[in-house]
Amino acid sequence: xxxxxxxxxxxxxxxxxxxxxxxxxxxxxxxxxxxxxxxxxxxxxxxxxxxxxxxxxxxxxxxxxxxxxxxxxxxxxxxxxxxxxxxxxxxxxxxxxxxxxxxxxxxxxxxxxxxxxxxxxxxxxxxxxxxxxxxxxxxxxxxxxxxxxxxxxxxxxxxxxxxxxxxxxxxxxxxxxxxxxxxxxxxxxxxxxxxxxxxxxxxxxxxxxxxxxxxxxxxxxxxxxxxxxxxxxxxxxxxxxxxxxxxxxxxxxxxxxxxxxxxxx
Amino acid sequence: xxxxxxxxxxxxxxxxxxxxxxxxxxxxxxxxxxxxxxxxxxxxxxxxxxxxxxxxxxxxxxxxxxxxxxxxxxxxxxxxxxxxxxxxxxxxxxxxxxxxxxxxxxxxxxxxxxxxxxxxxxxxxxxxxxxxxxxxxxxxxxxxxxxxxxxxxxxxxxxxxxxxxxxxxxxxxxxxxxxxxxxxxxxxxxxxxxxxxxxxxxxxxxxxxxxxxxxxxxxxxxxxxxxxxxxxxxxxxxxxxxxxxxxxxxxxxxxxxxxxxxxxxxxxxxxxxxxxxxxxxxxxxxx
Lengths: 265, 287
Ligand SMILES: Nc1ncnc2c1ncn2[C@@H]1O[C@H](COP(=O)(O)OP(=O)(O)OP(=O)(O)O)[C@@H](O)[C@H]1O
Ligand SMILES: [Mg+2]
What we know:
The complex is a heterodimer.
Chain A: H1 16-19, H2 22-39, H3 42-59, H4 63-71, H5 74-87, E1 92-96, E2 99-102, H6 103-129, H7 132-143, H8 153-182, H9 193-199, H10 201-224, H11 243-264
Antiparallel strand pairs in A: 1-2
Chain B: E1 3-14, E2 22-33, E3 37-41, H1 48-53, E4 63-68, E5 71-72, H2 76-79, E6 86-89, H3 102-112, H4 117-130, H5 135-138, H6 148-160, E7 166-170, H7 178-195, E8 198-202, H8 206-212, E9 215-220, E10 223-228, H9 230-234, H10 237-242, H11 249-259, H12 271-286
Parallel strand pairs in B: 3-8, 3-9, 6-7, 7-8
Antiparallel strand pairs in B: 1-2, 1-4, 4-5, 9-10
The structure holds adenosine-5'-triphosphate (ATP) and magnesium ion.
Magnesium ion binds next to helix 1 of chain B.
């Protein structure tokens, strides 16, 4: 049930995309998202789709995993498509009882679903191809200029690293607790809402107790190694842009510019 | 004697079809007779916990099949009810307590069985006394105020209260002090005597195995590499050390004596037997 891999989990690999500097990937995703959400008309969308396709191919991720990341959002995509297709007025294509499908509806639906799907795929690319620690290091480095405005960049990044680090641990622990309570006949699914909420207690009490215990242990472990927040810390593996990073940033920005141009020219 | 658990070419794969795929059990066949005390040993990650989770239907085979009390665990409907006859005490069960008092926590299983209040109270009291906790105090105490060892015992009582035909314990004595270990083993032996239950003990403690088990199954990297009586298994010392296991301490001591040329039996397993051999040896040399 909770087994298998969670959505967007890092898949180790050695592709160009894996080796890029995390900052490059964040910048790339921001550029792509901006073009999809704000600027792209349908020609721009096709251009972004091409870029995404190339990125997916370069990443060498198994197809199953890429589609898997869309899986839990399938329903959303389908519903969006149907609503758009049925509710947009225009030239009639087909009539199903009281429902009318228009040409314009199908086009609009296709476009919005493509937008959503692209956005999801692109958003998952960095998490699929970057170890969480590196990704947060990248984010930290990107938001660190804001430190002068009083944004605690290092602390934010640390919080994120820890949260990401403990997601799989908590999932695993939840699985053990569920199994253990099942072995004593717990059912987690049946009954009225009140009953259902109560039936979750055997899961959540041990899970929270465990999370608190872990947090305590971690705090002690960090303090006993004299950890102090962001002041003057340096990195063991400093982030460094190399040639491919400049090329990738160049290409994504060029595509963004192209999309903007297609829209306004 | 008839079999209570029959395992036929069981394989298990975690996260199949992903890059994280792990074959944790590989074609295991094993017959567990009714009423037997079986120990399962193997180094960390050898698949012990995965194997025992197949015994009460928490996991289902990727290949092969498992029959427990005549029920095929692949059968979804019947699998749901296996917990009534197969009690499984997880690794570190003290982390699974959740109720406000020890009493209600132990009562969780019996309540799910649909017993009457009177029956529930009786079972809870019996289970608590079996693990050496006072039932009257337990009604007042929160599990979160107990010491680790007492919490462990409370959690084990929660499974004993189900009165399972098969009791599985996954490293129940890990992290307990020597006396706590001995006591817990005594409680388990007592439960076995009273209920005539089949006991399956997963453990890293070879002395425990030597002292308690009638049969031993040895796992290595998801494969069953040996199965037999403790004396047979521990006579294959070289093979055991090769897969990261060891002999019980008394057996090691006697083997050392043997290597020094002393005339001792080599099939010694328990402290009592070792004492006897050493006494004999001393007696001989004195005369
Ligand atoms: N939920 C899981 N998801 C993926 N792999 C798992 C999972 N649980 C266990 N494994 C893997 O299956 C193998 C067997 O694990 P298992 O927990 O059965 O070992 P074990 O013999 O009980 O070890 P230990 O003595 O440490 O408890 C290991 O390689 C482990 O990494
Ligand atoms: Mg284990």
